[in-house]
Amino acid sequence: MPATDRLRLGLRENLPQFSLLVAINAFVGAMVGLERSTLPLIGRDDFALASSASVLSFIVAFGFAKALTNLAAGALAERVGRKRLLVLGWLFALPVPPLIAIAPSWGWIVAANAFLGISQGLAWSMTVVMKIDLVGPRRRGLALGLNEAAGYGGVAIAALASGWLAAAIVPRDVLVVGGAAIALIALGLSIAFVRDTAGHVALEQEEADDRATDEETPDLRAAFADATYRRKGLRACSQAGLVNNLNDALAWGLVPLYLAAHGAGVEAVGLVAGVYPAVWGLGQIGVGHWSDTVGRKPLIVAGMLTQAGALTLLAVSDGAVGLAAGASVLLGIGTALVYPTLIAAISDQVSPVARAPTVGVYRFWRDTGYCAGGLIAGFAADAVGFGGAIGLVAGLTAASGLWVALELPAGYRASLSCRCPCRAGRLGG
After folding, report:
1. Average pLDDT, stretch 94-105?
2. Is residue 135 in a domain?
3. DSSP 3-state of 118
């Protein structure tokens, strides 16, 4: 009996393993969330960094490392195995807390975030791909919504907790102890309980139409060309992902400095830093399922334009905590509309065997947004001030939404009538 005969696709059919991956992705998000309220302020206060560009250099290192790792992870997933890459991701997280603990200069913090970027690229990529593998095409949007909700729920909880704790404890100690505990627990769970999903990929490919069944996994060069420029639907999603994470880099690195410059304390910074990913995380549960019904394009366009409006409000808030918190809610809503929907839209347009490398390329471009955001926000803030930098990013976000409106073909959604989404994806290519 073939191994795939013992497997089934679907959320209910794979609920224990799916739930475990949801929990692990919450730990992945929490590793980043620990830094959201504290690390920019540590750069300013502990290392006396006066330049916003210098402070945000840790985000540039994180984004560069994560983007390249996403690219490699997508290409290696079929050859090395999903579980092995997930475990490797947590091994790369282990040096992060000690590097932060002993750092004599900001360069060590930047190096720690390069390790964190590699860890995130491997671990988050594999939890995404493995959940898609388990559920099949019918509940892809819901699966991605649950995955991203768990990850950014972890970001929110860790950001709120670290901001609260940092008001009473040395902020660097909060990062070190919390990061070490998260990495060790998640590594143990991944080694002991996660099962690889290669068999589910083979099963979905067997159930696909004849044209998809004959396909081979594309090499990295072909997948990169498709998702970067050759196929307009994939190209539109890749640029939107980049701009979305450009926004996130600004929220992560610049907003704490913006609020602190207007007199906000670390607890208030933690509140604003935590509200945004909390709304983002919770909203993705419903959005993922919604996109399976109404299609991907309307939600992506609406989300990018909502983000642009939120950033505009933040730019004119003059650092007032109440207005900043309101802008964070709007930014979370906009990001929730976009984040799981973009990955689902990418997955809709390719066959099962092409999914991992194509999603890897998309995630490469998406996380390149951290590099772009760190550089643009940092240098713009030094040149024209915090409000001007935020306004600039708001304009880029609105332009990105219009790009999606023009280039992403309408009607992409998980197909409930055919056995595989590949045909629908090819028609829009």
Report:
1. 96
2. yes
3. helix
